[in-house]
Write a structure and sequence with these properties.
about 80 residues; mainly alpha
Length: about 80
Amino acid sequence: MQRTNIYLDELQCAELDRRAAETGVSRSELIRRLVDAGLTGSTADLDRVLVAIEASFGALTDEDSILSRDVDGRTLHRAEMWRR
């Protein structure tokens, strides 16, 4: 990875910080994602995609009744984390 310096105005920095906080990533990671999307010619709207991901969080709240699994260490650990 290479370090690059760019100049941004105050509004650009504030918006990057807001979006980074919303998505739980650093400003640098958000910039890399935006650059990747621009360079690949992606037409996907990043905000729309992030909203869809956020809206789907917790959709499988009763996951264990849907998926049949043998009880193993990972399953027991996950169940304990959910109880906390």
